[in-house]
Amino acid sequence: MGKRGRIRLEDLAGWGFILPLMAGLLMFRLYPLVESLRLSFFHTNGVVETWAGWDNYRYLLLDDDFWEALRNTLVLGGMGIAISIPGSLVLATWIHSARWCRTFFRAVYFLPNITSMVAVAVVFQFLFYPTDQGLINYVLTGLGLPAQGWFADPDTSKLAVALMGVWHGIGYSILIVLAGLQSVPGELYEAASIDGAGPFRQWWHVTLPGVRPILVFLLITGMISAMRRFNDVWMIGGEAGNPGGSLSTLMLYIYRVGFHSFELGKASAAAYLLFVVVFLLTLAHFRLIRFQRRE
């Protein structure tokens, strides 16, 4: 009897430790997910609700602003990935082959990743200032090249924002690739060297296949991160994604519809369409991992 009572008290103590965490998850994770799904089927401003059915989803699929936001999100994500993955691979290979100061270079490249994105946006606004007062334009004009509009020009704003995102996040990618490089067996390099392969051929035929799963991981997670892009584009272009809506991402679209127009039903529907996109990317990631394991 006493033993049973002791076990029961231990169980109660365990539940006492778990319940605050479970309550937080239910309140701040599960409830918003369920409530957002419910709101996506209503016309509502947060106070008055009327049943909408699938109208909110149909509206989004016919809304040019929604498709423009999706296109901008994919372009920004694609540009960032096209720069960060090759760049992180080259830098990680260089750090991995360095004979000294490896820890120093890891810290230097990772330092921007722990910097506030708001602070990064402020610094890059100065660097990419659209006149000769900006550091980048000052260098360009010094080289005899024309100054660019950067954040003030729809033709160059995406590139500037992509470069800003790459600078902020490439340190994380470098550390992930470094982990992959360290997992490549050294015997493969020795065998390639015996076969007469030079440094470049070793890198191409040994290093790249060895880190291919890591590169796939960075590709998928990079696109998922791009889907959730908000802070930096909001700091640069405001809720409208200026200039000319060229920086309007899906997250900005949801924010604008939900908190500016107070159309919470449409904003919730847009959030769930974003969830579908992220879910498909995640599913593709798992499928690629499974396919690589079979090889």
TrEMBL record:
It comes from the Bacteria. Residues 70-285 form the ABC transmembrane type-1 domain. It is found in: Cell membrane. Its main location: membrane. Keywords: Cell membrane, Membrane, Transmembrane, Transmembrane helix, Transport. It is a multi-pass membrane protein. CDD domains: TM_PBP2. The chain crosses the membrane at residues 12-31, 74-95, 107-129, 135-152, 159-182, 202-221, 233-255, 267-289. PROSITE patterns: ABC_TM1. InterPro entries: ABC_transporter_permease, MetI-like, MetI-like_sf. Pfam families: BPD_transp_1. Belongs to the binding-protein-dependent transport system permease family. This is Sugar ABC transporter permease. It comes from Polycladomyces zharkentensis.
